[in-house]
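Morning, I've got a small favour to ask if you have a moment. Here's the protein in full, and shout if anything looks odd to you:
***
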Amino acid sequence: MRLYGCIGLRGCAAGFRVMAKRIFAGLVFVACLQASAPVHAGVVVGSCTGQPAGTSCTDTDGIQCTFAQCNGAGICDQNVPAPAGVFCTDTSPGNCFAARCDGAGSCDQNSLILLSGSACTDTDGNACTEARCDSAGTGNCDQNARNLCGECAGEPLGTPCTDTDGNTCTIARCDALGNCNQNALNQPFREPCNTGSPECPDGICDGGSTCLAFSNSASCLDTDGNDCTRAGCLPDGHCDQNAIFLDGEPCPDTDNNACTRALCDDAGNCDQNANILSFGELCNTGSTECPDGICDGVSTCLAFSNSASCLDTDGNDCTRASCRPDGHCDQNANFLDGEPCPDTDGNACTIARCDGAGNCDQNAQDTCECAGQSAGTPCTDRDGNECTTATCDGSGDCNQNGVIRGGESCTDTDGNACTIARCDASGNCDQNAEVVCGECTGQPAGASCTDTDGNECTAATCDGAGNCDQNGIDRLGERCTDTDGNACTIATCKTGGFCSQSIDKAPAGTPCGPLGNECYSDVCDGNGQCGVFRIGEPCTDTDDNPCTIATCNPTFHGCAQDIEKAPAGTPCGPLGNECYSDVCNDLGECGVVRLGERCTDTDGNACTIATCKTGGFCSQSIDKAPAGTPCGPLGNECISDVCDGSGECGVVRVGARCTDTDGNACTRATCTPDAFCSQSRSSAPAGTPCGPVGNECISGVCDGLGQCDDTIQVGEPCTDTDGSECTIAGCDSTGTCDQRDQCNAIPPEITCPQDARVTCGSATDPSATGVATATDDCDPSPDIDHSDNVVPTNDPANPIQEVIERTWTATDDCSNHDDCVQNITVLKRVFSLDIKPGSCPNALDPQAHGVLPLSLLGTASFDVRTVNVNSLVLSRADGVGGTVKPTSSSLQDTGTPFGGQLCGCHTRTGDGIKDLSLKFDNTAVTRTLKLDSVASGKSVILVLSGTLSDGCEFVASDCMVRTAVRGK
């Protein structure tokens, strides 16, 4: 027999009967008992005599959690425990627990926690609240579970209510119990919100209930003083001072090393030696003595070795100061030898000179001892050199090296008993001048020894027996002393050790001579003879005819004067005839007639031209000056002072204007055919100004018939005399010149602010990009206004989002205006893109299928969740092909930004910051972007572009390198 319990109004299953029912908080709890025996008025029929164990029998103890059952021994056991979970009488019906049998025969009052919201006893006496079992499932009776009086009392579920929790990413709505649930709804992902952080207040909702701060370095203050890091907001609203490492950016150079430049490294440190200047670049050593220098290309600034670069302070006139590479000023860098220095010994007979060791030798020159003495007279020897004797030089000086004691003995200081010291020809003591021991003693055959036979074609060597063989080596073929005076033969050593003077010939072209004949080159002919004839080359010209050329002629064995002619046009003369050019003709004669060219005009007639004619004479009148050539003056204004083309001067100016003497502005004086100036022959055109002289406002006009019709020119400009630039003078109705008739028409002069470049999201209003200024002659404060024309680029790969053409206008009080245009370039945001994260380089295989993975890399200052995924397209930076959209996207940590050059790369993957992982169809990318046209081994730049949640556009770039075609 089995029991079970359930909740609801269904009753018991087939084969079971209802044993008990309980109602708690409006719910019906049913206990079911297996119907294994007939039932009658709740009592099992029959006794336990002869009944098997488990047969139901009459329950007489009234205990709910036990039942009666035959035990197989004929006894009705009243204490068989009811199964756990069977409902029993609840003695505390107002609480949040239901009573059930515990399976051990007892009724557990706390066996079942009622459902959240079930009614329970309200004990707080507050009419505005209703008690319900709590939502936490703890079995407590929440006295304030249902609100009967607040703004949500009686309102439908979901009705908006007052949001009081300060969380901008949650929305308050009324719940089913009349309470205002502060977290009923969450704002959508990327909805702008306020984090509540004073450091990083701006953020976006995460789609749950949290406001994540924008990862934007501009949104929080950088306070750590580190020039190599930028502060950026963390999602929790904290301002991370080390959010961005500025790898490669300049930073304060503090090491005082002019040959290094400080740059930020990728760890946020200012590397003082990041950039080393090239060898030879100018630098400052930092030394006050020798500041000027050049970099050594390693890291050190080396001072210029220049005596002018540091100050000589040691007072020694026999040394010069010079900079050392370490910047120190070396006072003894240069020793002056023989230079005059201060004479301090008071000896008038000696002159002081620097000795080359930095000392001032007071006795360098004796001016008295040898005064009047002849050359060679002994004088005081002061140099301490035993190989020289001092003698007077004949000019009053004592030459310390006057006599060189060559060959004489001198002090032997080398301690070698086998050598004798003697003075050599230079005045030095040669310690090895004479060898007194056998030099070949103990020496092997072939060892060099002293050559004493004077034969330069043999060399002396030891013979192995202790003797020096003078003919030990025959110097066959080597040069020897040339004694025949023939430069075209070479003296060489021949077999037998003799010096041959003429067997070997000097190469052709070897210098020799001079021969004294200019037609022979002073070089050897290769056959041992000196001289090579210079056929046809120029030689000394002696005939004084510049139209012939003297050349070396083999027929004359010398210089021929007139066989060769000078080229036509060669300068010659002068001939003294202006009709002859002072140049040669092609016959070797001087002078070429300047036929038809101008010559000196002597007839005084400007209407004829003097020209050279055949025979070289100057004709004065044959050629006529062109008509219109200036001549005269003739003194008649009705005759033009020009030639008539037939050699005569003067052309009548028929009908031309001439001097008007009748004072009538309405008639015109013109020239007649007889060269007379007629005053009234023609009339001035109608409208020609005339009338009273002296008043520009009463100037009439001619009627076209020679008469003047006077009128007042009301409103016409007249002479402005008041000095004001802001008014224009005009004639009034009385004929007076009104000085303040009207404003001027001069516009203000406007100056636009400089063109600007800003990144999208930055301010573009005039307070950020500048305001135009204007000046005006009349209005001290012209009005300044502007209008904008926004020109988008509409190119996904272009880093420029749009250009704002801002037209500034300045207007003065007279409504005169001037314009200028300021261009404000708005740049797209730039982020990092990694094609094939973890791969370096990014291989481009046009035959590849499947997907191409890309990651838009998130950073501490860029949250990839702000990207509008539907806006993303991939294109080429060079504009080839179209655009491709991704096939899928997800948030993953896949890559780390690379801080180097664009096409550089690394194999690092995740950095702990979420990236936007994108997949593209490889075939579509290759086809649309025409990647199969990229040459093998060449790079192509791909650009991912799109928009952010704030409306800004962005670009991110990376490179791919074309791999070799498969199978080739």
User: Anything to note?
Assistant: The longest strand covers residues 800-811. The helical segments are 766-769, 922-928.
